[in-house]
Description:
mainly alpha
Amino acid sequence: MERVIDLLKDDMARVEERFRDNLCSDVPLINQVVEYVLDSGGKRIRPMLLLLAARLCGYRGQDHVELAGVVEFIHTATLLHDDVVDGAELRRGNSSANSVWGNQTSVLVGDFLLAKTFSIMVACGNLDVLKLLSETTTRMAEGEVQQLLNTCDLEVDETRYLAVIRSKTAILIAAACEVGAVLADSSPEQVVAMREFGLEIGTAFQLMDDALDYVAEEQQFGKVRGHDLAEGKMTLPLIHAYQQASVQQKKEVARIIELEEISEDDLDTVCGLIADTGGIEYTRDIAVERVAAAKRLLQIFPDSTTKEALCDLADYVVARTF
C-alpha cells in the first residue's frame, strides 16, 4: 500500500479537502456526524481506485477529485444505514454513529450524504457518470434487501451468496474503477476491463471481511467477533461449513442461528465447525483467485507505476491477517 499512498498523496489531500467543503451544512448535527464517520479510520479504498483508474486511462481533467468523494459518500451512507439495520455498536473499532446519536439521526444523515452525491454529480455534468452511479446505488439497495431475505436461511448456497455480495459491495468498487475509465473517454474494452477488475477485487474484499468476522479479534477488525452469525447472515465460511456438516451438526447450527442472543459457547461451536471444515481457508482461497483474475484484466494496459499500484491495492485486499 505504500506505493499507492505515495503515488496518490497529492490527489488524496485534495479529495479530503473537498470532503469538508462539500459536506459543510447549516445543520450542526449533520456536520458532527459526518465528520465523526469520515474520521473513523476508513482506508479510502474506493476513492483511491477511482483516482488510479483515471490516471491509468490517461484522464487529464479535474472531476476525478470530486467523484472520488462521491463514491466515498455513497459508501459512508450505506455504512450508516447498515449499522442501523444490523444494530451494530462498533464500526472500525469505534462506537457506531447510531450508538452515539441514535438510529433516527444515522438514517437521516445517511440520506443527506446520498442526496449530496447527486448534487455533486450533476455539477460535474457527465451524464454517463451520473447514470452509472445512479444505477449502482439502486443495485446496492437491491443487494441489501436480498441479504435481508437470506437471513437465517440455511438453504442459501454459494451462488446466492456471491450474487448478494456482488450487488451489496462489489458493485460500488466496480463503479469507482469504471468511472475513472469513463472520465478518460477510454475504449469500450478498457471500460469493461476496469469494471470487471473492480468486481473481482470487490468480491474478494467482502469474502475476506466475512472470513475475518469469525476469526479476527475486536481490536484488530473493529467489530465484535461473530457479528454476522448474531445477525443471521449466511456468509461463505458458514455456508461451506454447513454443507460439510453432519446431520446432528446441521441441527445444532439451525438452533443457534435462530437465537435472539448467541452465547460464547454457541459461537465457539459454530467457529469450531467452520475451523474443522476449512471454511476460512476455503473463503480466503476464493478471494485469492478473484484477486489473481483481477490483475490479469489489467494486461490490456501498458506497464506503468499506476498499473503496479492497482495490483498492490488488489493484493492488499487479501493481505489482511486473520
